[in-house]
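User: Teach me something about this protein's shape.
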Amino acid sequence: MTQLAGKRVLITGGGTGTGADLARGFHAAGAEVVVTGRREAPLRAVADRLPGTRAVTADVTDEASVAAMFAEAGPVDVVIANAGASVSAPFGKTTLADWNAMLAVNLTGAFLTLREGLKQFTGWGRLISVASTAGLKGYAYVAPYTAAKHGVVGLTRALAQEVARKPVTVNALCPGFLDTEMTERSIANIMDKTGKSADEAKAALAATNPQRRLIQPEEVTAAALWLCGPGSEGVNGQAISIAGGET
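Assistant: First, the predicted structure itself:
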C-alpha cells in the first residue's frame, strides 16, 4: 500500500501503544515516519523495526522542545498529536499538581503540537489528535483527564473553522478504552482500589463499550489513515468516536 508515498508524518507519543501502531500503519502506507516522545529507548525500538523511520526525543508540554522537534523532523504533511497520560483519583483528592500535569500533556501538548504543525504546512496537510471518549462524556475518578480531552475536542472544532478554506483538515479520534499499556495501568489501579481480579477489572472497562470489548490500536490507525486518504476532504472539525456504539 502506497497511499501516502511521498508524505511525512510526525507522531507524538510514538514509542508505545497507539502511537507505535500508528507508526507501523503509516509506514505500511508508504509514509516517511517520525516518532517522538520523552523516552528515547521505546522510540528507538519502534524506529529500528521500520526502515527509514526516525526517532526524535521531545517534551510536548514545552514550547521550545516542540519547536525543536519540528525543526529536527523537517517539513511534515501529517501531524498526529497522540501523546497523553492519565491519573486516577476521586475529585476531592485530586491535587493541583495532578490537574496541571493532566492539562499540560493532554491539552497543552496537543495545542503546541498542532500549532507548530500548522505553521509549517505549505499546502495539503492533516492535523489529527488522539483524544478519547472522555472528550465526549464524563468518567468518574479522572476529572482532569476528562476536562483535558474535552478541551482537545473544543480545540479541534475551533481550529477546523480557521482552516476550512485551506487544503487542511483538523479532526480528533475518540477511542474508548484501548488494549494498550495505559489501560493495563488502569486495570492495576482498579485491582488495587477494589480488590477485583485482573480479569474482572478488564471486564469492567470493556463493559463501557456496547460491544463489550476493548478497542484495538489498529482501529485508531485505520481511522487516521482514512482521514489522510482520498474522499475525506470534507471531514473537518469532527470528534470521531471509536467505541463500539453510543458514547
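Now, about its shape. The chain has a mean pLDDT of 93. The helical segments are 17-28, 40-49, 63-73, 96-120, 143-163, 181-194, 198-206, 217-227. If you'd like, I can walk through any region in more detail.
User: That's plenty for now, thanks!
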